[in-house]
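Summary for the steering committee. The consortium agreed at its last meeting that each partner would contribute one worked example illustrating the joint modelling workflow. Our contribution is presented below. We chose a case with several input lines so that the handling of multiple components could be demonstrated. No manual editing was applied between input and output; the record is shown as generated.
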Amino acid sequence: MTSSYLELVCPAGTPAALRAAITAGADTVYCGFRDCTNARNYPGLNFDRKEMIEGVAYAHARGRQVLVAINTFPRAGDEEPWHRAVDAAAEAGADAVILADIGVLDYATRHHPKLRRHLSVQASAANPMSIMFYRDNFDIKRVVLPRVLSIEDVAALIEQTGIETEVFAFGSVGPMSEGRCFLSSYMTGISPTSEGACAPASHVVYKEDGGCMKSYLGNVALNEFAKDEPAAYPTPCKGRYVTHDRASYLFEEPIGLNAIDILPQLKAAGVTALKIEGRQRSRAYVAQVVGTFRKALDDLAGGAVSVAANDLKSVAEGGHETFGAYKTGWR
Amino acid sequence: MTIGKKASNLTIGPLFFNWSVEKRRDFYFRIADEADVDCVYVGEVVCSKRESSFEDHLPEIVDRLNAAGKEVVRSTLALVTSEREMNAIKANIGYEQLIEANDVASLQSLKGSPHVIGPFINVFNETTCDFLVRNGAKRIVLAVEASAAAIGIIAAKASAIETEVMVFGRQPLSVAMRCYHARSHGLTRDSCQFVCGLDADGLPADTIDGQPILTVNGTQTMSHGYGVLLNELGRLQGMGVSHFRLSPQDVDMVRVAALYRAVLDKKSTAAEALDKLKTLTAEVPFINGFIHGREGLSWVEN
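What follows is the complete predicted structure of the assembly.
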């Protein structure tokens, strides 16, 4: 039997969520600074420098770890905020930084060689050659794998590179290659890649139209719902579009990823860590999802085949769940 | 501003659509024989399943383009995942032909030899640009999202690097594993029957209100409108941009090239060229929002 331990990596959009995640059993939390340097740059979220220092101290006092996501792409002529964020993560004593941009990786490698570096999913490294490029040049210790891979792909990649991997276990399904999707900026003018906000709430409008509710991003109608139907958030890749005279979820349904039923397969594939997504979600969400996964992982470590009651549907995106690309792939 | 800078080069970017072998060959032969362009990118960027049908005919296309005095660059896949795709990338590297890397997967093998960084690798800032130059990049094609301010800062490094901006064609907005073209027909990527070949200019995807908004091309999603930076050419030249990319659409690309060439050479005004371009592109609207820091789908009058 394998003795490998699956590390549970959990979101902390706020200091309160950080404490909730740790109380619920997170091994590691990840968070970001309150600016454009992280990919969840939404109002009311994230940490200032003092909060980061306190958060790291709180986690370390309980034997847990903190990762700092600095995973957007600096704008030309304005790289300072990203470099200062790396400096501040190092000062706070973070256990690692999660980076995507080659320039930020280069800065961190030169200025903070001892600060552990993880490769963000935003770098879209979906093959061994890309991973080796980042490892050889920037000594990355772990890669967060894109959500476009099947379990077989994940296993093969781990075997070929021998690197630590972190995979998404719960949260959103991202059908596009991450970090290089310009759909949201095409519709809003705000860049997820360098401003850290996909489908920003400031550009979201819901309008009643006859008997139904329509959702818009910018001026683009993305979906419509019957009055009694829950209205999904208008993200460009989760909208309804018309092809061949028929409206459909052309890219992906508004549905949540939940891998809790395939944890044994992920462990067998050699995965190091499981990532729960949702820094933009509530503290209650964090507590519920983290607690459920903690129990499932403890059962798994104890040899139980299956597992904690999977009662997460109510908090999944759109109220529906999928294995994403893991089971069947997207081929 | 910069010493040793070449004149403005006009380029034909890689063909994103799945045209038949005959249509592709006719297109490239006509570009070789009739188009006043300096450089032509060939090779499949979107989907590795399309490559085999085209591969056999590539050498004669490359020969014809070379004989016509065009620089030929081999473009590579934007999203690499399978071992077969990695092997294909490796096989392309090592020939004399210049390579355009579109996935970071290529960069390790290209280290130390001159190459082009394609628009699917994020180069948003100077530090990234500097790193890639040290790795051997000689030219950087900026992402479609790049604003004029960002282009200006990176192009100002022009003594170290050539910069290329896409100035015509549907703007590539995302790449994916899943094939949306197949999905729209109730198929999967593995069972796709090459339905992407049915739409030579891409498959329109409209909003539920009937507004044309996106174009699906296999695993790629593009804008509905054609990106048109005719009004901005003079400003880009002034910034030091050295290469101007026309992305092949199912329109008369030789005449499109002639219109852009005339504006670059100051033999025509942008306004004249825009009027003429509209007669070639039917109903498709023009867009230019990204370079002005706006919604990519918008048109900003200069």
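The first strand of chain A starts at residue 7 and ends at 11. Residues 283-301 of chain A form the longest helix (19 residues).
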